[in-house]
Amino acid sequence: MTELSMKKRLEIPRQEMPTQDPDARCANFGEVALGYTYELALREAQRCLQCPDPACVKGCPVGVKIPEFIAALCEGDLPRAVAEMKERNAMPAICGRVCPQETQCEVLCVLGKRGAPVAIGRLERYVGDYELQERVCPTPVREAPTGQRIAIVGSGPAGLTCAAELAVQGHEVTIFEALHSSGGVLGYGIPEFRLPKQVVQDEIDCVVQGLDIQVRLNTLIGRTFTVEELLEDEGYAAIFVGSGAGLPNMVRIPGINLNGVLSANEFLTRVNLKKGYRFPEYDTPVKVGKKVAVIGAGNVAMDAARSALRLGTMRALENGGTPPEVHIVYRRSIEEVPARLEEFEHAREEGIHFNFLVNPVRIHGNERREVSGMRVQRMALGEPDASGRRRPLPIPGAEYDMDVDMVIMALGTRPNPIVFRHAAGLERTEWGTVVADEETGKTTVCPIWAGGDVVTGAATVISAMGAGQRAAASIDAYLRTGEW
Amino acid sequence: MYEIVYKETLSEHSKLMVVEAPDVARKADPGQFVIVRIDEQGERIPLTIADYDRDAGTVTLVFQEVGKSTMHMGTLTPGEGFRDLVGPLGHPTEIGERGTVVCVGGGVAIAAIYPIARGFKQAGNEVLSIIGARSRELLFWIERMKAISDELIVVTDDGSYGRQALVTDPLRELLELRADEIAEVHAVGPAPMMKACAQTAQPFGVPVIVSLNTVMVDGTGMCGGCRVEVGGEVRFVCVDGPSFDGHLVDWDMLMARQAFYRDEEHHAVAHWEEECRLLAAEEDA
Ligand SMILES: Cc1cc2nc3c(=O)[nH]c(=O)nc-3n(C[C@H](O)[C@H](O)[C@H](O)COP(=O)(O)OP(=O)(O)OC[C@H]3O[C@@H](n4cnc5c(N)ncnc54)[C@H](O)[C@@H]3O)c2cc1C
Ligand SMILES: Cc1cc2nc3c(=O)[nH]c(=O)nc-3n(C[C@H](O)[C@H](O)[C@H](O)COP(=O)(O)OP(=O)(O)OC[C@H]3O[C@@H](n4cnc5c(N)ncnc54)[C@H](O)[C@@H]3O)c2cc1C
Ligand code: SF4
Ligand code: SF4
Ligand code: FES
Fold first, then answer.
1. Is it the case that residue A392 has pLDDT exceeding 80?
2. Of A65, A369, A448, B231, which one has the greatest count of Cβ atoms within 10 A?
3. Ligand 2 pocket check for B244: Cβ under 6 Å
4. What is the model's pLDDT at position A274?
5. In angstroms, how far is CA A28 from the centroid of its own chain?
């Protein structure tokens, strides 16, 4: 590839990524965004100005070497692009798909000041997918065995990353996972049409291959073993807690326990982890209403709404009914929508209805205790609150009924406290998150580290991976020096 | 795989299985449960730990074939096993020196009340047990229960064994006679039975501890699918329970929630029977 002039580079428009047609994709769980072709990736890569002091990198929680990997791509040296990428981010196929790039790396890209930023996430995905196809990256060489055993609680992105790093350093690592499969939210939360489970599986295999990491599924720490037992009886020298924030918040409004009111976790778990959309081939049933309201507007809400739309449409096609009507109900305005921009736009294209500045106050039920409607309150935005967003306030007397038969609650999650049974002295905040040092992941008890959603509350995949990396470095230092 | 090392048919639709699960056996206590999954396609099924052998590293499960998953489980034989088994889940029953306790088990839950009754006996209590079933064919573990009870009353709905009565009849009589001595009633069985036990004991002011069996997904507190209302509070059965004060449980809500997937369950059984029929036809051919 010949060297392009700055002018020529600036003339290239941001390359769109092909997607499945909105009408078609409503009736399947296939991936929505189809990824760049080689040509598209190359063109997009050529837009990058190779800034000597790249702003974009500062926005990435793990500091991916963005100009370096893009330069390699431009030169058509894909193996080098993979190597540059993997130096900081072991799961590019996953992060390229789910990172909220528009608020992390891309928001800081200099091109964004005058036009559209480089599509860093899409390029990252391209590189990640190339590696999953070609497997050009050599398996990391493990350092000499140290004889030290480390227990990792949870197989989400935080736990997996921490485990892989420690294994490379020569330690003996065991991951304990409560569920019957690994991956955490990547497996049971984020749906197939956004993050294919095959990609998750392949990328996890890629990360742990050759590292001899033992994964013990179906092991609930706090019950099967306690943290104390892992240290005292099972001979682990250190523990990393990456148990996530999986406990759903259920608002206390009348009717919350009616049949047809589900947490997004329950709905998505039935759909993803247990493949309910393939019932009865898979045994776990999942119901979808004709008119579904999803409360909240984060990634989780979008995922629940779009999964409901797909399931309902697939069943309607099969049985000759009409596709469901799916509503997002959000108490703030469109400006505050916390979901990734791409997901919000995809949801709109698919025909999800958005109801802004409304808040549920009561769910109505019929004689069989099933959802038969929902009373909502209109809201107006007041002064900014602690989070800097304008606080929604009820407009007195402005209430009305929505005609719905299913309500999915997607109002955030907290850490599950089970893991903390018999973990004396481990300090937690009033929100139930673990108190841990941001740089090292050290908790208030030696030798226990923590990172990911269990420390920050619900955040992002890449920030959980970053926390896992930093904790691994701190654990390694502790094991080698004995200094806490 | 969690291997089945022993299988026994207890009654027409109830099977017992001893399963290898050393980590679970080591920690199991009366009142706790496990969640099993037969294979990759399987549903996660909660089952009470009916017994455990810490040395042998096994747990005993007793189940009634009521739907697709439990019917499929019933066809498994020793040497085969479960792909997944997690536990022990839930809080153990609080066992201590109470004096006199009544333990009531209905139907397949005779297996669930057994470790609780045995625990109270071992803790030095006087244990009065009542077990019941629709008819004689559905009863099991009479000798086992007798061995750990100071008194055992057996009832059947149709009178085909023991006394013709519902478990609440002898319960009421015991309470009428000895309400001031009976410290607690523990009742496990179908929801209507547990509700009736709670109502029976209410006028006597005796606490009734019940073990709730809601529909569950993960069993670790993650989904809220198992939620019930107890004393006006929302509780998750898998992590806050499964034992609760029977006088405070919102029974009507519990029963409504149990019935939510009934249509799908019928559909799953039909699908399973069709598969079995096809398989049999293939084998014949
Ligand atoms: C529906 C949904 C959509 C999302 N979309 C995005 C997105 O688009 N982009 C993005 O960046 N982020 C997204 N997130 C957030 C992101 O997935 C999380 O921030 C990230 O997965 C946190 O990683 P973690 O390793 O800390 O925890 P988790 O991924 O939650 O993993 C924790 C693991 O620990 C296990 N565990 C818990 N307790 C125990 C115990 N006691 N013993 C043993 N194991 C235990 C759990 O079963 C789980 O497997 C989404 C989250 C959800 C729920
Ligand atoms: C904590 C706990 C402990 C349990 N212990 C035992 C036990 O020791 N032995 C045993 O036989 N059963 C036990 N159960 C019930 C058992 O889990 C269900 O019978 C089983 O899930 C039914 O699965 P299925 O696919 O065969 O039937 P399905 O087709 O799913 O259901 C058939 C029938 O069973 C009811 N049902 C479905 N799921 C449950 C459930 N989780 N609990 C109660 N009823 C349900 C349905 O309403 C329906 O009427 C327990 C349940 C819980 C929550
Ligand atoms: S990991 Fe996420 S934030 Fe970092 S460069 Fe990649 S897409 Fe951007
Ligand atoms: S800021 Fe934008 S243009 Fe500059 S190196 Fe990063 S991606 Fe390239
Ligand atoms: S079964 Fe999911 S929270 Fe209890």
1. yes
2. A448
3. no
4. 67
5. 21
Tell me what the mean pLDDT of segment A445-466 comes to: 96
Residue A1's pLDDT is: 47
How many Å lie between the centroid of ligand 5 and the Cα of residue B52? 24
Q: What CATH code would you report for A6-134?
A: 1.10.1060.10
Secondary structure (DSSP) of A398-418 = EEEEE--SEEEE-S-EE--GG
Model confidence over A87-132: pLDDT tens digits?
999 999 999 999 999 899 999 999 998 899 999 999 999 999 999 9
Q: What is the mean pLDDT of chain A?
A: 93
From A317's Cα to the closest Cα of chain B, the distance in A is: 18
**What 3 state SS string does chain B have?**
CEEEEEEEEEECCEEEEEEECHHHHHHCCCCCEEEEECCCCCCCEEEECCEEECCCCEEEEEEECCCHHHHHHHCCCECEEECEEEEEECCCCCCCCCCEEEEEEEHHHHHHHHHHHHHHHHCCCEEEEEEEECCHHHCCCHHHHHHHCCEEEEEECCCCCCEECCCHHHHHHHHHHHCCCEEEEEEECCHHHHHHHHHHHHHHCCCEEEECCCCCCCCCCCCCCCEEEECCEEEEHHHHCCEEECCCECHHHHHHHHCCCHHHHHHHHHHHHHHHHHHHHHHHC
Q: A323: number of CA atoms within 13 Å, CB side?
A: 20
Classified by CATH at the fold level, domain A149-246+414-481 comes out as FAD/NAD(P)-binding domain (3.50.50)
Q: Which CATH superfamily is domain B2-89 in?
A: Translation factors (2.40.30.10)
What is the CATH architecture assignment of A250-411?
A: 3-Layer(bba) Sandwich (3.50)
* CATH fold group of domain B93-211: Rossmann fold (3.40.50)
User: Which has the closest alpha carbon to A213: A170, A243, A273, A242?
Assistant: A170
Find the residue in B nearest to A267 (Cα). B223
Question: Which band of pLDDT confidence, cut at 50, 70 and 90, is reported for residue A2?
Answer: low
Minimum-distance CB partner of B223 among A220, A265, A285: A265
ipTM of predicted complex: 0.92
Cβ–Cβ gap B27/A224 under 8 Å: yes
- Top residue of A177, A181, A223 to mutate, by most chain B CBs within 10 Å, is A223
Q: Which two tokens stand for residue B44?
A: 């996660």
Boundaries of every domain in chain B: 2-89, 93-211, 213-285
Q: What pLDDT is attached to residue A360?
A: 97
Q: What is the pLDDT of residues A216-253, one digit of tens each?
A: 999 999 999 999 999 999 999 999 999 999 999 888 89
Q: Which residues in chain B have Cβ-Cβ distances shorter than 8 Å to A180?
A: 37, 44, 83-84, 86
Least confident segment among A427-441, B20-34, B266-280: B266-280
Asked if the Cβ–Cβ distance from A283 to B42 is below 8 Å, we say yes
Mean pLDDT of A190-197: 94
